[in-house]
């Protein structure tokens, strides 16, 4: 999933303390320069609306524009809401279906020539970032890290190491994929109270618990900002912790992935 093409484009990466992270989402493509030592952004986060349809070429063009605006010429980590294996996107649950089978190496070679680019799953990126700069629980033992947003993303972690490309949001529970009933997009769409939605999340986490017996769950995504409204309502044997990086996690994890030349 990692793609390294640049010979020596990365003047800004010479000390490898900074990299650019891009988080591709259904509504916005967000990016920032990341201080890899602290996990903080350097300068502003830039957001451009996701082009519709969000085809690979349209998204790649938008990322090129984002990098222009940031005046960044170094390495770039990019998240996608897709399984990414050997640089090829294999799924496209909440993004244009034309991503399935897209060779991201070839794509970003064309749109971002001469750069080092790493592409990885959005929840995996967020999980890695949480381990490095977020809730300390993320780095110890067996942890299922989840992002609640348009879908449900998962990163499975063992002592901070990632088992990449797990897709727990698509586990079928009572005849329905988990993310069809319990994503935060569903909460909004069906105007569910936190109480009602937490019941659905509880059913999903109970199933994950029954299958994996993790030491802890960490819940992230924008809705983890309101964790006190729903996490205390969950009734599980496994402790549930709120992520600390929230929406920043994808960008930070993307930047970390390219700086580590990550290629699981
Ligand atoms: C996708 C995952 C992604 C998650 C969060 C799911 O629908 O299948 O790959 O991590 O949404 O965006």
Chain-averaged pLDDT: 93
Number of domains: 2
Rg from alpha-carbon coordinates? 18 Å
CATH homologous superfamily heading of the largest domain: ATPase, nucleotide binding domain
- Helix content bin: 25-40%
Task: Could you tell me the CATH topology label of the largest domain.
Answer: Nucleotidyltransferase, domain 5
Q: Quickly count the helices.
A: 8
- CATH architectural arrangement of the largest domain: 2-Layer Sandwich
Heterogens? beta-D-glucopyranose
**Approximately what portion of the residues adopt beta-strand conformation?**
25-35%
The secondary-structure element order is EEEEHEEEHEHEEEEEHHHEHEH
Q: How many DSSP E strands?
A: 15
CATH class of the largest domain: Alpha Beta
Query: Which blocks of ≥5 consecutive residues have pLDDT under 50?
Result: 1-14
* Lateral arrangement of strands in the main beta sheet: 1-8-5-2-3-4
Terminus-to-terminus distance: 7 Å
User: For the report, how would you describe the main beta sheet?
Assistant: 6 strands, mixed
Shape: globular
Q: Structural class, from helix and strand content?
A: alpha/beta
Keywords: Kinase, Transferase
GO molecular function: kinase activity
Protein name: Polyphosphate glucokinase
Family: Belongs to the ROK (NagC/XylR) family.
């Amino acid at each position: 999933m990692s793609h390294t093409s640049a010979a020596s484009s990365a003047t800004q990466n010479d000390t490898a303390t900074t990299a650019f992270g891009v988080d591709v989402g259904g509504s916005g493509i967000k990016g920032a320069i990341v201080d890899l030592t602290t996990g903080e952004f350097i300068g502003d986060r830039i957001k451009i609306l996701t082009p519709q349809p969000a085809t690979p070429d349209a998204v790649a063009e938008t990322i090129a524009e984002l990098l222009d605006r940031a005046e960044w010429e170094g390495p770039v980590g990019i998240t996608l809401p897709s399984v990414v294996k050997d640089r090829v996107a294999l799924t496209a649950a909440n993004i244009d279906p034309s991503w399935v089978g897209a060779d991201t190496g070839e794509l970003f070679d064309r749109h971002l020539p001469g750069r080092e680019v790493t592409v990885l799953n959005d929840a995996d990126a967020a999980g890695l970032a949480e381990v490095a700069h977020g809730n300390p629980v993320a780095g110890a033992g067996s942890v299922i890290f989840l992002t609640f947003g348009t879908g449900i993303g998962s990163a499975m972690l063992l002592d901070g190491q990632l088992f990449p490309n797990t897709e727990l949001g698509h586990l079928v529970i009572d005849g329905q994929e988990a993310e069809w009933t319990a994503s935060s997009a569903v909460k909004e769409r069906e105007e569910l109270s936190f109480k009602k939605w937490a019941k659905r999340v509880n059913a999903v986490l109970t199933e994950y618990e029954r299958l994996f017996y993790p030491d802890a769950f960490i819940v992230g995504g924008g809705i983890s900002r309101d964790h006190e409204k729903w996490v205390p309502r969950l009734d599980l044997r496994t402790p549930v912790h709120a992520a600390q990086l929230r929406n920043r996690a994808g960008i930070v994890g993307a930047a970390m992935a390219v700086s580590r030349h990550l290629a699981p």
